[in-house]
Specification:
By secondary structure, the protein is mostly helical. The protein has 13 helices and four strands. 58% of the residues lie in helices and 7% in strands. The structure holds fe (ii) ion (FE2) (2 copies). The site of one fe (ii) ion (FE2) has 6 residues, from loops.
Length: 310
């Protein structure tokens, strides 16, 4: 039997799978989740806590897997499918995470980039039109401190913030979403452990950290299918308007406005996901510590958004 890798982030929702999924242990494929299983609530939490990123299916069940994926996603985007909001949000979060993983793993793959971009368009449409979905998605706990999941959370908040700031053009929000999904591409590739306080980084790790936006931008800048605005967001997401950010200490006038939006949302989710701060504390800290680093209106609007969904 031949096996095909699948992403665990695509297994979401209460629909039963109609294929077997295996894990690879010592070069052997071991049945791990079987036909009839589904992945929501506690079950999903347990799966996530394993930090397993890939499983395998037998090649002759690929069609069944593809079928499961497309049915799941159609249901999730359909408000009237009868599925709970939580279920729909979990499926959509998983798909966005999987798309981010695909592109970060193989940025040279034009097809992956374009399908991530199409899905980002659909995602934006949902966020702009269904505030309850935005709330559910932005609150989904990133239990395994996954970089791609972090990207999905940042994209959700960034679209919410952009809307409040008057950026309602779907195309602009699609770029914001793609930039957010991919902003920490270098962390994904180097596997630098960012799930700790910056003050706990060794000098070497700090060098890698300070270079991550530039390193990622270099990896993608020659890829013709990458949008320039997405590259800008990747390169500028750690810059601040006081010119004290990194890697280039760019002043506000040199920053893409969408980079500033993504940067602020990244700053918030870094505290929640990687420093394990309760959301309420992170919201307070965001306001106290970032005056001067981000426009006041942005900080107020993001706090307003976060406070509206306590
Ligand atoms: Fe970053
Ligand atoms: Fe980040």
């Amino acid at each position: 039997v031949e096996y095909l890798p699948i992403r665990v982030s695509t297994l979401r929702g209460d629909s039963q799978i109609n294929f077997d999924a295996f894990v690879k242990i010592n070069e052997k494929f071991v049945l791990y989740v079987r036909k009839g299983d589904s992945f929501e609530g506690e079950r999903l939490d347990r799966l996530k806590s394993k930090k397993l990123k890939k499983m395998f299916i037998s090649l002759d069940e690929e069609t069944k897997y593809r079928d499961y994926l497309s049915k799941n996603i159609e249901m999730a985007y359909d408000k009237n499918s009868g599925k709970s909001l939580q279920n729909r949000a979990e499926i959509i979060q998983g798909q966005q995470q999987s798309n981010a993983e695909d592109v970060m793993e193989n940025p040279e793959n034009e097809k992956s980039y374009n399908s991530a971009k199409d899905a980002a368009g659909r995602f934006v449409n949902l966020l702009l039109n269904e505030p309850e979905a935005l709330e559910r998605l932005s609150k989904m706990e990133n239990m395994d401190q996954n970089i791609a999941h972090h990207g999905v959370t940042v994209s959700t908040l960034a679209v919410g913030l952009a809307k409040r700031l008057g950026f309602t053009d779907p195309k602009v929000n699609q770029m914001i979403t793609m930039g957010s999904l991919l902003h920490d591409l270098d962390h994904f590739q180097t596997q630098l452990n960012v799930a700790r306080k910056l003050t706990d980084f060794s000098a070497d790790d700090m060098t890698t950290y300070k270079n991550h936006p530039m390193a990622a931008a270099r990896k993608v800048q020659d890829k013709k299918h990458f949008d320039q605005q997405v590259i800008n967001i990747i390169l500028q997401h750690e810059e601040t308007i006081d010119g004290q950010g990194f890697p280039q200490k760019l002043p506000e006038a040199k920053l893409d406005p969408t980079s500033i939006i993504v940067g602020l949302c990244n700053c918030f989710d870094r505290m929640v996901t990687f420093e394990k701060l309760p959301r309420a504390d992170a919201t307070k800290k965001l306001t106290i510590e970032n005056v001067g680093k981000y426009p006041l209106g942005h900080i107020q609007q993001l706090s307003g958004l976060l406070n509206s969904m306590k």
